[in-house]
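WARN retry 2 of 3 for item q-0093 after timeout on previous attempt; input resubmitted unchanged.
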Amino acid sequence: MSDPRDDDDAAAEPGPVAASDADVEPDATASSEPPPKLPEREPDAPDSGSFEEETQPIEAPPIEASELLQLRTIASTRAAALGTADEETLELPGGEPIEALPRGTTIASFVVIAHIGEDALGPIYSAFDVVANRKVALRLLPVPTDDPESAQRQLAVVDIMAAVARLSHPCILAVYDVGTWQGGVYVAMESFDGIELAKWMEARDEPFPWRAVIGNARDVGRALAAAHAQGVFHRDFTPDKVLLGPPGSLRVADFSLAPAVIDAPDAPTEDVARLRKRLGLDGAVPPLMIGTVEYAAPEVLAGAEADARSDQFSFCVALYEALYGERPWPADTRSALAGEMADGPPRTAPDDSRVPVWLRDALLRGLQIAPEDRWPSMERLIRELDRDPAASRRRWQRGLAAITVVGTLAGAGAWWVDRTEQRCAEAGSELEGVWDARRRAELSRVFEGDGAAYAVDNARAVGDAIDAWAGVWSHLQVEACEVTRVRGEASEELYTERRACMAVRLDELRALLSMLESIDAEGHERALAAAESLTSTRVCTRPSGLLELAVGPDVDPARVDDLRLRIARATTLLQLGRARAVEASLPELERDADGLAQAGVQVQLAQLRGATARALGRDDAAIDAFHDAAIRASQNELDQALALAWLELAATFADGKQLDEATRALDHARSLVERTPYDEVRWRVAATAGQISARAGRDADALARYHEALAQLERRRASTTAHYDLLLQLGELTAARGDVPAATGYFTRALELVRDRLGPQHPTLATPLLRLGELQLPREGTAAARATWERALVIVAEAHRSDANAVVEMLLRMATALREHGDADGALEYDGRALAAIESTHGDDDARATVWLDEGRSLLALGRVAQARVPLERSLAHRESVLASLGPASATTSGNAGHRSAAAQMVLDAGAELVRALAAQDPASDAATQLARRLRVVAAQHRLTVPSWLVGVTDTAASGAPP
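OK item q-0093 returned
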């Protein structure tokens, strides 16, 4: 994905696609008079390679450490507010909500083009500098306006960023201007088209070739050294802060901008205390640290201030991860990582590592626990990385012989390498026409044509997700070419297979886009989930991923390609909520695939069949299909497909509370994932383990597993949809345990996650709002709960103007909650609103029957038994007619068993309430007894559980005793 600091309208060059506002240049007349500019970067600044080891840094303007700490805490802590979020408002961390800046807003000499991102520090906009005539990325850093020292704090932030703006190095993201605006600070930065190094690292299964890693590492290290020489420290160096652009270009971003990590009140401190003792630090463990835990130096974990030596340590952690595919200490929480550092050295190198000893030694010195034991400076470390003894020997040995031929071959060799690298750089341009600025703009118009209030935000989020996928696809295309034709590390045969794999992945994107351009409102709601479900292009770097696509000599490749594309379309349709349509298409797909000797297609089809059955609630059919997928994948050594099949089996077994089978399936999946590089599904292993533990009543273990899955997702910055679902599961689990504050926190985080990504009007917000209202009800009263619910109803009603089902479902949930709280009058009011919603949209009798049943329950709760009989009898009559229309129980087939069982359960539910009403009206009623007997027959025919009290009604009648 292009970084939020990217140029959002540069589409001329190959690479990650940017936003489509591109060609519109803001009118310079809209600008107010700009303030004086910061000094321009010096074009002839000396290269950092000229610095000597003993160079003393020039001190930046003095800022108190405590003041800097407080500033960063303010800038990185987001309030968990439940107040109404206006559509045109951004709630900035620590400050007052400010209106989202519309296109054309002027800040100093910068005219806002679009809101392109937001992180823990604040929002980022694409803007145009009308004075310098260039695009910039404009970051806003809020400072609380209710703070009596807010003016001084603004100036302190300006001083910090002004020091960063004085940095001049080709690998440092330039800061052009900084100033105050509306109580906060704006920072105008270079607009750079690139992908985060962290994302690029995730796109590889195996560690990078170490020489390729060192090339980029030297550039990054020299950028840090140049900053240190000017008295500026990064303070939060991670792979996320390095942007890789076109071949040969990179930038290090966000100097001196670090998030604060605040420990929970009950967080363990023993390990951090041990680390402080080892470092010779006195005093209690501070509850706050600055920076990203996984890459933090020991002294920073222990609560001390960051400096050049801690930057060096973070740099070495990131370099270690790039070289070995793992961090030197695996823990990812402050306490656990501090304990590992206090107890011992970094983990040993993997057995198959090709990293030379001299390079590992250099890294280990930079990873020393005591800062004084590390390299004396970043520049000294970089000189060590330049050393490469083997390369020096080879150069000396070849030097004399090379003299005689260099004049003849140098020109030709350079020409060949330049032309090959150019062709490789162009390999990523195959996205043009499939996904580029024009296609993104077209997709936005389709979404906005739906007229939904959330359409603009939804289109932006979906476009960003596809941008992220396309950026990795493009980089992998270039990498596959370079590793073969520039560096000579792979064969042409392997390159051909990888290109074929990338072409299949591109076809999946085409299928997604074709579906997104012709979907209904429900599809628009689910569009982000579908975009985030695109198959990771990382599979094209794995032998198993390539083997899945292998086509034998007797197989028609065109037939295989056609089936793959149709399966991809059906899979997208399923993700968009059209399970019935996919079910209807399966017989034709299976007929066309019959007899095809291509394992990958057969496994995909079985997975699609299972996922469709599971979406329709047919767990037995889903289990059969996933089992078929697992057998086919195992027979053909398709390890990744096998892991996914076992995961689906585990989750489906858990849904049906077949916990022993679920555990065995998960064990199979875990064993595959742990010995293979399938990082993108590791979180699913933890999440499924949590699901099994929750079903088994092992709440503490479920919480631990869900948190493990959540940490993996957050670390990878993966799928908003998966993140949201996990937060809801955590909320439900803690609510069931009676831990209302924790549940409220999880539902609030889910609410904020969706609001930040999809805007304040997306219908997905309704679920956490509904649950928050239910939690408020017993603690804060009916008025508070109903106020929260009304927010949800407004959102859902606006999103589903022609379909009342979603509104009705929410109203009935609210009615149930009020009835259980003792407010049957309020429940009856919501029942009435549900019926009115159905009538206003000409809804069907199925929906009416559901509301009639709930209305009868509310009337029974109010003691109005005679009135309750009317809606209950209507509901039962309709549901019995539906069951009868499905044929006699003896005619049940595998195709309609699920429908009949669901219809029979509805008859049982409505009939049981009517029995209550009849018995309440006349305890000796024969009608109640006869109806109870009918219901027991229906339950027996469909293997349903009859409530014990209903059994008691018929048994009492049989004995002659009064019911």
